[in-house]
Write a structure and sequence with these properties.
The protein is mainly alpha-helical. It is 79% helix and 0% strand. It is built from 16 helices and no strands. It starts with a helix and ends in a 41-residue tail after the last helix.
Length: 443
C-alpha cells in the first residue's frame, strides 16, 4: 500500500527521478576531484585538506541553513543551490583547459560546499513536504537506493572517463548533473510548510542584522531540540565521533587503492562502484530491516559491520578483498544513515525540521574537517594499516557506548521525550516549539 501511494505521488516521483539522474553525475566527483588533486600534487594530505576545507565551510553554513530552509521557499532554495553548483563546478574544466590551478579547487570546493550543505538540509525537509509521515522511511529508502544505483554507475564511468579523457571531463559531467536537477525541480511542487504565526511574522519583518540573529537563534532552537530528545542527543554525540573519522574515508580508499595496492583509475572507479552497490542494497533493505529488527539492532549492527570492514581493509594486500570490505563498509554506513535520518524526520515537527537538521549536521560534523586532514595525513605517512585499525577500534567503542543509550531501543521514537516549552528571549514563541513524532546520507 505504501509503495502504491508513493508511485501515485507525482511530485515525489519527479523529485525521485531527477535526483537519481543528478546523482549519476554527482558521483563522478567522488572519483574525479580526488584524482585531479592526486594527478596534480601526488599528495594524500592535499586530498584530505581539500575535503577539510569543504567540511569547514559546510559547518558555517549549517549555523544558519536550517533557519533558511524553514523560512524560505524550499523548492526555490534547492534550485538556487543547483544553479550555483553548476557554475562553480563548470569553472574547473574551463580553467584546467587554460592553465591548471590547484588553488581554484579550494575556492570552488569552499563555495560549492556552502550550497551543498544548504541543499542537503533543504532536501531532507523537502521529503517531509512530499510524502506522508508514515511513508518517510520508505521514501528515504527509495531515494537512497536509487542514489546508490547512481553511485554504482557513476564511479565506474568516472574511472573510465578519467582514464581516457582526464579527471576534468568527469568534473564537467558532474557540473551538468546540477543542470538536470535544476530543470527537474521546476516541475515539482512541495506541500506548504505550516508555520506558527510568530514564525511567519519573523520571516517577514526585521532588518538584515535581525534576520541573521534569528538565523543563529534558529540554530540554538534546533540544538535545544536535539539535546532534550534523548535518542537524538545520543545520536548527535556518537555521530560526532564517527564523522570525525569517516569524512575523509573515501580519500583514504582512493589513495590506498592507487598507492597501497598499485591500481589504476579504472579499478578505483570499479571498486567505488561496488561500494555504491553496498549502499544500494542497504537503502533498499532498510525499511524491511527496521521493521524486523527495530532501530537499535539496525544501527548497532551497522557500525559493528563498519568496524570489522575497516579492520580487514587495513590489513589486506589484495584488491578483491579491499573491494568487498569497502562494499560492506558502505552498506553499514548507509543502513545507519537512513535509519537515523528517518528517525529525525519522524520525531521533528515540520516547521522545525530545517533547524533541527542543520543543528544536527553542524554539531556532528564539527570535528570532521580536522579528522579528514588528520586521517589522510597519517595514511600518507604511515600507510593504511595502522590508521584504519585505530578507526575500527573507535567504531567498536561507539557501538558499545550506544548500547547504553536509547539508541538500543527497538522503537525509540515512541519514547522520545519532548523538550520543555521554555525558550530564550530571542527565540520564536513557545507555540512554535510544540513537537510531533520521529527520522541520514546524500550528497
Amino acid at each position: 500500500m505504501v509503495a502504491r501511494s508513493l508511485r501515485s505521488n507525482r511530485d515525489f516521483s519527479v523529485f525521485w527521478a531527477v535526483q537519481a539522474l543528478s546523482e549519476v553525475g554527482n558521483a563522478f566527483s567522488l572519483v574525479a576531484l580526488p584524482l585531479l588533486v592526486l594527478h596534480t600534487t601526488g599528495s594524500a594530505a592535499q586530498m584530505g585538506l581539500l575535503t577539510a576545507v569543504a567540511g569547514a565551510t559546510s559547518l558555517l553554513t549549517g549555523l544558519v541553513g536550517g533557519s533558511w530552509a524553514d523560512r524560505f521557499d524550499r523548492r526555490r532554495l534547492l534550485m538556487l543551490c543547483d544553479a550555483a553548483r553548476l557554475v562553480l563546478y563548470g569553472a574547473i574544466p574551463v580553467c584546467w583547459a587554460l592553465s591548471p590551478q590547484i588553488w581554484l579547487l579550494y575556492v570552488v570546493m569552499a563555495l560549492a560546499s556552502v550550497f551543498e550543505m544548504l541543499f542537503k538540509i533543504t532536501y531532507v525537509t523537502a521529503v517531509a513536504n512530499l510524502v506522508d509521515k508514515e511513508q518517510i522511511v520508505a521514501a528515504n529508502g527509495r531515494l537512497e537506493a536509487t542514489n546508490a544505483i547512481a553511485y554504482i554507475a557513476g564511479p565506474a564511468l568516472a574511472g573510465v572517463v578519467a582514464g581516457f579523457f582526464g579527471p576534468t571531463a568527469a568534473v564537467a559531467i558532474n557540473a551538468g548533473s546540477f543542470g538536470v536537477s535544476l530543470v527537474g525541480l521546476v516541475f515539482v511542487r512541495l506541500r506548504p510548510t505550516a508555520r506558527p504565526v510568530a514564525d511567519r511574522s519573523q520571516s517577514e519583518t526585521g532588518s538584515k542584522a535581525g534576520r541573521a540573529r534569528n538565523g543563529l537563534a534558529g540554530f540554538r532552537i534546533g540544538a535545544a531540540f536535539l539535546w532534550h530528545t534523548p535518542v537524538l542527543r545520543a545520536l548527535t554525540v556518537l555521530l560526532t565521533v564517527t564523522t570525525f573519522l569517516s569524512l575523509g574515508m573515501t580519500d583514504v580508499f582512493i589513495y590506498h587503492l592507487r598507492h597501497g595496492l598499485g591500481q589504476d583509475e579504472r579499478t578505483v572507479g570499479y571498486v567505488l562502484a561496488l561500494a555504491g552497490l553496498g549502499t544500494c542494497v542497504a537503502a533498499a533493505a532498510t525499511a524491511r530491516l527496521r521493521r524486523s529488527w527495530g532501530f537499535g539492532r539496525c544501527w548497532l549492527g551497522a557500525f559493528t559491520l563498519c568496524s570489522v570492514s575497516v579492520l580487514v581493509l587495513g590489513g589486506t594486500g589484495r584488491v578483491s578483498v579491499a573491494a568487498v570490505t569497502i562494499c560492506l563498509y558502505s552498506f553499514g554506513m548507509a543502513l545507519a544513515g537512513v535509519c537515523s535520518m528517518s528517525l529525525r524526520q519522524q520525531v521533528t515537527p515540520d516547521h522545525l525540521l530545517g533547524r533541527v537538521t542543520s543543528a544536527f549536521w553542524t554539531i556532528h560534523g564539527s570535528l570532521a574537517p580536522l579528522g579528514a586532514a588528520l586521517l589522510t595525513a597519517l595514511v600518507g605517512r604511515l600507510g593504511a594499516r595502522g590508521p584504519l585499525t585505530a578507526v575500527a577500534a573507535v567504531f567498536l567503542a561507539v557501538v558499545v557506548a550506544a548500547a547504553f543509550t536509547p539508541i538500543r531501543q527497538r522503537h525509540p521514537e515512541r519514547t522520545a521525550v519532548q523538550p520543555p516549552r521554555a525558550r530564550p528571549a530571542d527565540a520564536p514563541s513557545p507555540r512554535e516549539e510544540s513537537h510531533g513524532d520521529d527520522t541520514e546520507t546524500r550528497r
